[in-house]
Amino acid sequence: MSDSLPPDLAAALAGSRARRGPLGDPLVYFAEVTSTNDIASARAERGAAEGTTIVAASQTAGRGRLGRAWHSPADAGLYVSIVFRDPNVAPYLTLAGGVAVAEGIRAATGLPLEIKWPNDVVTRSANGPARRRKLAGILAEASSSAEGLQYVILGFGINLKPAAYPPEIADRASSVEAELGRAVDSAAILVEVLAALASEMPALSKSDPRSLLTRWRALAPLASGSAVECDGPGGRITGIAAGVAEDGALLVRVGGRVERIVAGEVIWR
Ligand code: BTN
C-alpha cells in the first residue's frame, strides 16, 4: 500500500505538470520500501505506463551499481524510480539520468555539480578528481523478453542531508545540504530533475542524442583529458580519457589506440 503524498510534493507536482511531460504521472509515494527500483519494476510488470514514478522516504535494500548497497536512511535523501518503455530512449537513459540529476539539483538550489563517468553526480573541486565527493547516483535496470525490450527502470538517489555514511564511502560522499550549508526544498529538486529529464525525451525518442551529449560533456570535464585507470576489454589499463561515445562508452587513449569502456569502476587520477 502506498502512502499519501506529502503536501509540499503534491503542490510542486501540480505546479510543474506542463514541464514534466509524462514523468511523475502517476507519482506513487511510500514512507519505506525495499528498493524503489523493485516497486517500479513490479508495477511495470503489471502494465504501468511510461512515466510512472515511485518515490520513497527511505529504502531498506537500496542498491547501486556493481552490486553495491545504496545507503538510504529516512528523510535524508530522494529515492526515485521511473518506468520507461520507449525502446529508442532506453540506450541513453543512464546518461540522461546523470544530466537530469545534476541539472535539476542546480536549477532548484544553485549548487554546481559535475558528472564522473558513467553517472556519479559529484561536487566540483579545483583540487583534482579525488577531492570530488559523490552526492547522487543513477541505476538503470532493463527487462527484455523474446519480443524485445519490455521496460527500463531509471532509479536515482540524491543525498539531501548529511548522514552517517558507511565507513567505506564516508570520505567520498556528501549531500546537497552539506555542500550548500543550508536546508533545501526536496520537492523542488524532484520536479526540476523530472523536468530536465522530460526536456530530453522528444529528441531521444527520435534516437537523436546530440543535445543530451552536449549537456553531458559540459557537465563532465573529467571525461576529456584526465588520467584514468580501469578495466578494458583485455585487462587493466591506464590511459587518458578521450570523451564519451554516442552510446555512452568512455573512450580511453592508451598509447596509440583508443579503448571503449562500457562498464566497471574507473579510477580518476
Ligand atoms: C550508484 O551510484 O551506484 C547508483 C545508485 C542508485 C540509487 C537509487 S536510489 C533509488 C533507486 N532504488 C535503488 O535501489 N537504487 C536506485
Low-pLDDT segments: none
Query: What structural class do helix, strand and pairing data support?
Result: alpha+beta
Which band does the percent of strand residues land in?
A: 25-35%
Overall, the morphology is globular
Which small-molecule species are bound to the chains here? biotin
Distance between the termini: 46 Å
What's the oligomerization state? single chain
Structural Rg: 18 Å
What is the helical fraction, as a range of percent? 25-40%
Biggest sheet strand line-up: 1-2-3-7-6-5-4
Care to count the β-strands?
12
pLDDT averaged over residues = 94
Number of helices: 8
How is the main sheet built?
7 strands, mixed
Written as H for each helix and E for each strand, in order along the chain, the element string is HHEHEEHEEEEHHHHEEEEE
What features would you describe in this structure?
It is globular and about 55 Å long. It has eight helices and twelve strands. It has a seven-stranded mixed beta sheet with strand order 1-2-3-7-6-5-4, with helices on both faces. It has a five-stranded antiparallel beta sheet with strand order 11-10-9-8-12, with no helix packed on it. Helix 1 runs parallel beside helix 7, helix 4 packs across helix 7 and helix 4 packs across helix 8. The longest helix is centred in the C-terminal third of the chain and has 19 residues. With 269 residues, it is an alpha+beta fold. Strand 6 and strand 7 form a beta hairpin. The structure holds biotin (BTN). The site of biotin (BTN) has 20 residues, from helix 3, strand 3, strand 6 and strand 7. The site of biotin has 20 residues, from helix 3, strand 3, strand 6 and strand 7.
